[in-house]
Amino acid sequence: MTVAVADKRRRQTAARTAIDRMTTLARDGASVVSAVMGDAAEPGEWTHYPPRDARDTASGYRFFYHCHRDMPAAWGEHGHFHLFVRAGAADADEREPLTHLVALSVDARGLPLRVFTTNRWVTDEVWQPAPDVLDALDGFRVAPPTAELLAVADWLAATTVLLRPQIERVIKARDQRLTDLASRGPRPNLLDDRRLHVLTSEPVSLADSVAALDT
């Protein structure tokens, strides 16, 4: 089996998982957004959902969902998920700093709209180069304590596999953009430049990604 065929089959399996989790939530009148927000009727700006994030102490992965008004209005998002991995050994102290993997913007129904990356200061992360981030993303998996959050975690893990081509492009483009900016002249503290928030982004469509796998 070629690498391309194996990758396609992995993404097809991920597509089935993502759709299954969305369907399961929909049967209960829920979505990945309502499931992750719990009892909150409307999201509070900058508030993390779930509180204190969804964490997996064994693997070091975690995620949270939130929204804030300074995101581009043209995206039409309800909010976005931030995915992280603990920077350090898997059994390290839970308070150890994190590395941001990728962010996923969704609409009010929980359908993916865009994948994007942010500058280091946004998440106060331990910065790692694109190859290391992509390697870490391969194992993304969170086992939260409730069934609804588990459905969201499974959906996120599957969606990152399904959208892997777009995610790879934005993460690699992130590093290239910073390299290009640095080459234009002295840019001290580029990773902490508050003028640089979202570094790279790309629109995505769950339906288009699934359809592309059938061609």
Automatic annotation (TrEMBL):
It comes from the Bacteria. It holds the Pfam family DUF6969. Residues 13-202 form the DUF6969 domain. InterPro entries: DUF6969 (IPR054242). This is DUF6969 domain-containing protein.
